[in-house]
Amino acid sequence: MFSRRLLHTVRLGTATLAVLASGSGQALDVRVLIQEGASVPVRLLGTGGAPQASAPVWKVEVRGSELALNGKSAGSSTLYVPPSPGSRVQIGSKVYRGGVLLRLNRGKVQGINVVNVEDYLRGVVPAEMPALWPEAALESQAVVARTYVTQRVNPAQPFDICAGTNCQMYPGIDGEHERTNAAIDATRGEVLTYGGQLADTYFSANSGGYTASAAEVWGKNLPYLIAKPDPQSVTASGERGRWQITVSPAKLNSAATAYRLNVGTVRRVSFGQTSASGRVEEVTVVGSSRTSTLKGASAGGFVRALGAPSSRARVDSSSPLRLSGQGSGHGVGLSQYGALGFAREGRSHRDVLGFYYPGTVVQALHYQPVAAATQSAPVLNAVTGAGP
């Protein structure tokens, strides 16, 4: 029964967390926060070879300082069913590969999917990029997504990553596709590094023809995340890469409030200085009580808060406020439409990664068997450069 399996492994110590970090020694397990609330429904669905279609639903909820299963105290604030080959679990309304970790956090239940990183990617990659795009684009996304999550694995934290747009979209098994599965298999274990460390592999939908630097968007100086022309994004996206929006007064005042400008009712917005990539770096907001100016990364964030797909934007009219521009997303790192353009030209995923993360290296992850809690980190072995 579910409760019996859980109660055999209810307390997670340092050694258990080390196992979660390193998996079986063959691949990396990651912990994905799927759901948090007053209760979390869970079903153990067995494995592909031994499915349990009629498995009961267990309602996991809070009872004092402990968790309860279908109203009965579990005697612990943490419950864990580890992943096994082919295992599947339903957390909330969706089905995931791997196992489940349930924990009490500030009066709520956290439902966390513990899953092999390669299986995790099977849900992520088609959720982040259209599965019918060319192989090189999908392989680029797989390496970027693998690096992104591997960098965030931290046994000292209760989970490594979330399942929504603030992290990487992860809809579970229902989102998988055979073409993205093939891209994940073709790049198995590949990650990007810089100076021997995992790289920050930010990505967005469309750079709008010019990638942004991490410095201009977030104030982070990273030598491989720079501003540079990106004609492939324009070629691949065409007119879809251009946009125009009208900002309502309510949206405008909401953004001003979010940025604590304290200008009263907003009367007028103007853009000043732009970055090397053509993104807004200065915004002046004139209100009924005062005028305020935002600069740097805050200016770009304000533009996106107005509903603009990108801060590579300009003001077309003030009343009503109309903006137009190019691109979608922050523009740092991989441009997905740019990857599409490179792939259509017959370039490889290493060519794509070398363009968007210059100076990085593609390396293969290999994992040490877990003999002690100290053996919890993946080992990086160099394979080849990311690109020319």
Kindly state the mean pLDDT as a whole number? 88
Task: Give the overall silhouette.
Answer: globular
Bin the strand percentage. Answer: 25-35%
Give the fraction of residues assigned to helices.
25-40%
Major sheet description: 6 strands, antiparallel
What distance lies between the first and last C-alpha atoms, to the nearest angstrom? 55 Å
Low-confidence stretches: 1-26, 369-385
Sheet with the most strands: spatial strand order = 5-4-3-2-7-8
Task: Report the total helices.
Answer: 11
Which structural class best describes the helix and strand composition? alpha+beta
Report the radius of gyration as a whole number of Å.
Answer: 23 Å
The counted number of beta strands is 25
Describe the protein in words.
The protein has 388 residues and is α+β, with helices and mostly antiparallel strands. It is 26% helix and 32% strand. It contains eleven helices and 25 strands. It has helices at 2-7, 14-22, 117-128, 135-151, 178-186, 214-218, 231-237, 249-258, 297-305, 336-344, 349-356; strands at 29-37, 39-47, 58-63, 66-69, 72-73, 78-81, 87-91, 94-97, 99-105, 108-116, 161-162, 190-194, 197-198, 203-204, 210-211, 228-229, 242-247, 266-271, 282-287, 291-295, 313-318, 321-326, 334-335, 361-366, 379-385. A six-stranded antiparallel β-sheet has the order 5-4-3-2-7-8, with no helix packed on it. Helix 4 (135-151) packs antiparallel against helix 10. The longest helix is centred in the middle third of the chain and has 17 residues, at 135-151.
Write the layout of secondary structure elements.
Layout: H1 2-7, H2 14-22, E1 29-37, E2 39-47, E3 58-63, E4 66-69, E5 72-73, E6 78-81, E7 87-91, E8 94-97, E9 99-105, E10 108-116, H3 117-128, H4 135-151, E11 161-162, H5 178-186, E12 190-194, E13 197-198, E14 203-204, E15 210-211, H6 214-218, E16 228-229, H7 231-237, E17 242-247, H8 249-258, E18 266-271, E19 282-287, E20 291-295, H9 297-305, E21 313-318, E22 321-326, E23 334-335, H10 336-344, H11 349-356, E24 361-366, E25 379-385
Parallel strand pairs: 1-11, 14-23
Antiparallel strand pairs: 1-10, 2-3, 2-7, 3-4, 4-5, 6-9, 7-8, 9-10, 12-13, 12-24, 15-16, 17-22, 18-19, 19-20, 21-22, 24-25
Helix pairs in contact: 3-4, 3-5, 4-5, 4-10, 4-11, 7-10
